[in-house]
Specification:
Elements lengths: L7 E7 L6 E7 L3 H8 L10 E10 L6 E8 L13 E4 L5 E10 L7 E9 L6 E11 L2
Antiparallel strand pairs: 1-8, 2-7, 3-6, 3-8, 4-5, 4-7
């Protein structure tokens, strides 16, 4: 049986010109006891979680692609990467809807995930127009 976290959303988040930018943090509580006490179904710190969602992004000037990553930890660009990077070809000033799906099989003691974006070739910041994501265990 899977447990879903409360979806987290953000709008109008600026990306850095060409460095990795933390866009959204998806927190969760650990253990079934916390879930039962709070009445909130969430992912597990023991691992076997997925992060799912979608992001609408407008690339900045000069951009040729965007790289989306999921990392363990809150608001971090240095946490352990979860799954492979997702590289999407996106021309400068173009807008795209990007589905998010990352699978984490390692324990996550940080009890949160952060979605990050890096523009490739960007000479001006882009904008994440909207993003929504949540976690689920798959134990």
């Amino acid at each position: 049986m899977s447990n879903l976290s409360t979806p987290q959303s953000a709008t109008a988040v600026a990306t850095n010109v060409s460095t990795e930018t933390a866009i959204l943090t998806i927190p969760f509580s650990s253990g079934a006891t916390a879930n039962a006490l709070l009445g909130i179904p969430v992912a597990s710190a023991a691992g076997k979680n997925v992060v799912l969602g979608s992001m609408n992004i407008t690339a900045g000037t000069g951009t040729t692609a965007v790289v989306v990553k999921c990392r363990q930890g809150a608001g971090t660009v240095t946490g352990t990467q979860v799954g492979p990077s997702k590289t999407v070809t996106l021309a400068a000033t173009a807008t795209a809807e990007i589905p998010l799906a990352f699978q984490d099989t390692a324990p996550n003691s940080a009890e949160a995930y952060t979605i990050t974006v890096t523009q490739t070739g960007g000479t001006a910041a882009g904008t994440v127009n909207a993003i929504t994501a949540y976690t689920s265990d798959y134990s």
